[in-house]
Design goal:
This protein is an alpha/beta fold and 284 residues long. The chain has 10 helices and 11 strands. It folds into 2 domains: 86 residues, Rossmann fold, CATH 3.40.50.10860; 124 residues, NAD(P)-binding Rossmann-like Domain (Rossmann fold), CATH 3.40.50. Helix content is 39%, strand content 15%.
């Protein structure tokens, strides 16, 4: 039997807007405007939308944007040269290579060309290593950083809490687990080979789902009162977006939950701006 709880809806849009406003105030008081370079290779329509949104967000936050658009047939050497030029440009504090890149390019090799001090996606080995080592000088991937901020908006003390992260990608699941571990949570990383996933999830005080499977997490996987962070973005048959959690069913069971859209998504860009500001301050 489920105990009915009043579920708090975590308003990622509002929290991200506040963060962006704080960043804008900080950049307005700086002598030099921070700069973010975005490299886009090819003509993936979704990537074009993401890049446009990032550039607009930069403008509003007082961050100068540098755009490099390369044709789909651009070679590894051409993209590398572009990264190198931004590495050498002192006006550029952050470099973002929009993923995915076309198949003929080696994305990992390109990412590792980025100067770690400008790696605002937090994907270079130096930044991943710093995160694992607990060295706070590194740049942390944006989406898990944003998800942690949302968790902290409803949880005052994470210490000793059971956290389950479903998904172990380098982009999200692994850094998310590390961030929760750094907050002294007892962390379980679940993935496609995890046995008894519903039971594992049911132990979670904090449940983070990042799989990419429509409404996979059912109401009876959720511990009553748990904080549920839904990272998944899935397009349903009717064209609408939904997360990895059966949101409607989770209401009344979860203590707090992020909606999709309007939860984790808006935090990603806000944290990208935050990382750029941070990189600019650290470069001084
Ligand atoms: P990914 O690289 O495809 O990783 C998916 C993970 O889910 C893998 O670790 C996989 O396990 C695990 N998985 C797959 N099927 C499973 C199952 N049946 N049970 C348990 N685990 C399962 O994806 P991602 O990049 O981490 O992204 C995950 C989702 O988050 C996607 O919907 C993506 O669109 C969304 N996302 C949103 C944002 C945002 O800004 N809101 C940012 C990033 C990602 P294995 O490792 O064993 O294969």
């Amino acid at each position: 039997m489920n105990i009915m709880t009043e579920t708090r809806i975590i308003d990622g849009k509002a929290i991200a807007a506040r963060l962006r406003e704080e960043i804008a105030q900080e950049t307005a008081a700086m002598d030099t405007q921070p700069g973010l370079a975005v490299i886009l290779v090819g003509d993936n329509p979704a990537s074009h939308v993401y890049v446009r949104n990032k550039i607009r967000a930069c403008e509003k936050a007082g961050i100068k944007s540098f755009e490099s658009r390369l044709p789909v047939q651009a070679t590894q050497a051409e993209v590398t040269a572009e990264i190198q030029a931004f590495n050498d440009n002192p006006a550029v504090n952050g470099i973002l290579l929009q993923l995915p890149v076309p198949d003929h390019l080696d994305a990992d090799a390109l990412i590792h060309m980025i100067n770690p001090a400008k790696d605002v996606d937090g994907l270079t080995f130096i930044n991943i290593g710093k995160l694992v080592a607990g060295d706070q000088s590194g740049l942390v991937p944006c989406t898990p950083q944003g998800a942690l901020a949302l968790i902290k908006s409803v949880e005052t003390d994470l210490s000793g809490k059971n956290a389950v992260v479903i998904g172990r990608s380098l982009l999200f699941g692994k850094p998310m687990a590390q961030l929760l571990l750094a907050e002294n949570c007892t962390v379980t990383s679940a993935h496609s080979r995890t046995k008894n996933l519903p039971e594992v999830c049911k132990q979670a005080d904090i449940l983070v789902a990042a799989v990419g499977r429509e409404k996979m997490v059912k109401a009876d996987w959720i511990k009553p009162g748990a904080t549920v962070i839904d990272v998944g973005i899935n397009r349903m048959e009717d064209g609408k977006l939904c997360g990895d959690v059966d949101y409607e069913a989770a209401l009344g069971i979860a203590g707090a939950i992020t909606p999709v859209p309007g939860g984790v998504g808006p935090m990603t860009i806000a944290c990208l701006l935050q990382n750029t500001l941070r990189a600019a301050k650290q470069s001084k």
